[in-house]
Each structure stands twice: as C-alpha cells, then as structure tokens.
C-alpha cells in the first residue's frame, strides 16, 4: 500500500515528552517516538518534526512572576531546542539520520534553519527537527508547525496529541462532547475550538494545507495516519 502523503511535518507537544512525570524528559517516550518515525521513513515518507517546550518551560508560566511575555517566549524557544536535541539523539540511536535546525542561532549545538538546507535534508531522508520557534516571540509551536510545513511543501500537517480527535467541547469535563471526523477550516475557527491554535489553522487555510489531528500515544497511529488517514480529525477545505 502506498502512503497517502510523501512529505509530512509532525507537531509534538513538549508535554508529550514528559510521559507520566510532572516535567522533564521521559526517555522511554523518546524511544517510542523514534521507533514510530523510523517506520515512516521505512515506507519512503519524508518527515519533519516540530517540538514544543512545555515540559521544560511555558510562556504562560511567566504570569505573576514579573517576566515580560517576550522574555518568557524566548525561554520557551530555548526549551524547544533542548527537546529537539534529545529527539535528534533518540533518532540517531535507532539508526536514523536527523538534523535539529533552529530559528534561533545556536551554532555550536544545532544548525541554523535555512529552508533550502532543510529541503535537502528531507530529500536525503533525514528527519528534520525544527526548533527555536520562529525566532520571534508571540507565536505558538502550532503556528511554527504550520509555517514549516508550508515552507517545505509538506502534503499534510500532522498534530500528535493525547486525544483521539477534535471534540465539540472538552471531553474531560463534558460527557456529551462529540468527536469530529472532518472539519472545514472555517468551521473550526467559527466554533472557537481549542484543539489547535487559530493562527495555525488560518495559515493552513490560506495555503490549502490539510491538518490531521490524532492520538500520538497509540502505537502504529503515525503510520496509520500517513498510510490510511482514517483516524483523528481531518481539517481541510469544506
């Protein structure tokens, strides 16, 4: 069976890396992610990854501390670099070539993000890990994921989460919450759904890039998302 998508960008939250811990990095989670991505590359799919930093630092943590928002966001970008380096090492341990590319210049530990260089890495079947946000404050990593997916010509933007789909309301507090299997961009935005940053969805809408939100924690789901596309919630033009 041929893959539905030949080039994908996968967004992972920093919180996903902490596993059952309160913070930090659970290395068993890194191993799980690297094995899942390894299967994708084995199927001929080119993979970019955008990782958040919430397991180490969230800009929202700055409220009431005296830190201004821009400073807090830069700290969050540095946290994504730490996570990206951990992911790069995990990918290498399973025999994959990987490159962490940062929008913030930190040349001693990772490459600067240069679009043409990222495209060349993807063509050479290297996993490209996009870190350092956009290099600017006030942007979420959802938006970074959408931006990088558009820049590298991905066929779809995958968002791995800890829920099975986009719901009409929070399923943790509302037993009547219903999952959506497919949504239009405008429908997602009009209903003010919180599963993804609205700026990221708007950016995908303007560039006709579909989004698939799915549960990352179930083994095989990444491959299923790319090979079959029959899980989670697909957000695209109506």
TrEMBL record:
GO biological process: 'de novo' CTP biosynthetic process; UDP biosynthetic process
Catalytic activity reported: UMP + ATP = UDP + ADP
Keywords assigned: ATP-binding, Cytoplasm, Kinase, Nucleotide-binding, Pyrimidine biosynthesis, Transferase
A Gene Ontology molecular function term of the record: UMP kinase activity
Cellular compartments per GO CC: cytosol
Compartment annotation: Cytoplasm
Pathway assigned to this chain's UniProt record: Pyrimidine metabolism; CTP biosynthesis via de novo pathway; UDP from UMP (UMPK route): step 1/1
Pfam families: AA_kinase
Regulation: Inhibited by UTP.
InterPro entries: AceGlu_kinase-like_sf, Asp/Glu/Uridylate_kinase, Uridylate_kinase, Uridylate_kinase_bac
Binding site for UMP: 53, 73, 134-141
Key word Aminoacyl-tRNA synthetase present: no
Role, per record: Catalyzes the reversible phosphorylation of UMP to UDP.
Subunit structure: Homohexamer.
Family from the record: Belongs to the UMP kinase family.
NCBIfam families named in the record: pyrH_bact
Protein name: Uridylate kinase
Gene that encodes it: pyrH
